[in-house]
Specification:
The chain is mainly alpha-helical. The protein has one domain (22-254): P1 Nuclease, CATH 1.10.575. Helices cover 58% and strands 5% of the residues. The protein contains 13 helices and 5 strands. The chain has a 3-stranded mixed β-sheet with strand order 4-3-5. Helix 2 crosses helix 7. It is globular and about 50 Å long. The protein binds adenine and zinc ion (ZN) (2 copies). One zinc ion (ZN) binds at residues 20-21, 61-62, 77, 128, 132. One zinc ion (ZN) binds next to helix 8.
């Protein structure tokens, strides 16, 4: 293939490829949630998703990113507001954000007067956005685009703080999404209840607070590798587990 054509085809990968909680993170969240669905939610989801798993549909919102006709949804994957502030006190984007996106998706899916197509579309987005909500760099600050402008090295290769949390860290364990979900799905009832407590507002501020710590965890240009991946293993796993259990809670409520 001629070079200009190759570059043209890869353009969307350069522009959009590194902006989202990678496929593995979303699938782990979906896989964990699947285990905690009520019978009623399971039946409704099975019908709307044509028998596909939550893990399978969890990446749909990223898959449509390269299609310009869906550009309206780009800003729905994250929110930026000043560190130290609560979401509810912050200035809102006219394009929407991950919180308004989740609220809109819940309303669309709940309303049985909406077309099946519309409900299914927003259901898939919802499953994805609850995952993104638990990637701390998706509840971040605007000046460096949620860490996308903070360059670091990951095992000797160029990366940035956002990308480390979207994919580098999770990929460093070399585990499939099912292996990761198996590691995380067993939670006793008391802990599960604790994790599932609260609202979208509590969850976004929780991620935002973690995000503030992550900004302090690196220096610009720092060489990250094994040390970082061990230090942040618990935090990464905790976020994946929270995402999964809370996704189950949201879906169980919708289909109750
Ligand atoms: N673009 C700007 N801010 C972002 C964020 N927090 N997450 C993903 N993409 C972004
Ligand atoms: Zn996303
Ligand atoms: Zn991202």
């Amino acid at each position: 293939m001629r070079k200009p054509l190759v570059l043209l085809l890869l353009f969307p990968v350069f522009v959009f490829g590194n902006a989202f909680w990678g496929k593995t993170g979303h699938r782990v969240t979906g896989e964990i949630a699947q285990e905690y669905l009520t019978g009623k939610a399971k039946r409704a989801l099975n019908e709307l998703l044509d028998g596909h798993s939550l893990a399978f549909v969890s990446t749909f919102a990223d898959d449509i990113k390269a299609d310009r006709s869906y550009s309206k949804y780009s800003a729905w994957h994250y929110v930026n507001y000043p560190l130290g502030m609560d979401y509810q006190d912050s200035e809102k984007s006219e394009y929407g954000d991950i919180v308004t996106a989740i609220q809109e998706c819940i309303a669309k899916v709940k309303d049985e007067k909406n077309s099946r197509e519309d409900r299914v579309f927003h259901l898939k987005l919802l499953i994805h956005f609850i995952g993104d909500l638990h990637q701390p760099m998706h509840a971040s600050r605007g000046e460096d685009k949620g860490g996308n402008d903070i360059q670091v090295q990951w095992f000797g290769e160029g990366s940035n703080l956002h990308r480390v949390w979207d994919k580098n860290l999770i990929e460093s364990y070399g585990m499939t999404y099912t292996e990761l979900a198996n590691e995380l799905h067993e939670v006793d009832r008391k802990k599960r209840k604790e994790i599932q407590e609260g609202t979208i507002y509590d969850w976004v501020d929780e991620s935002h607070e973690i995000c503030a710590e992550l900004y302090d965890s690196v220096e610009v240009g720092e060489k990250l590798g094994y040390r970082y991946s061990y230090d942040y293993n618990n935090l990464l796993f905790q976020q994946l587990q929270r995402g999964g259990l809370r996704l189950a809670k949201v879906l169980n409520e919708i289909f109750s």
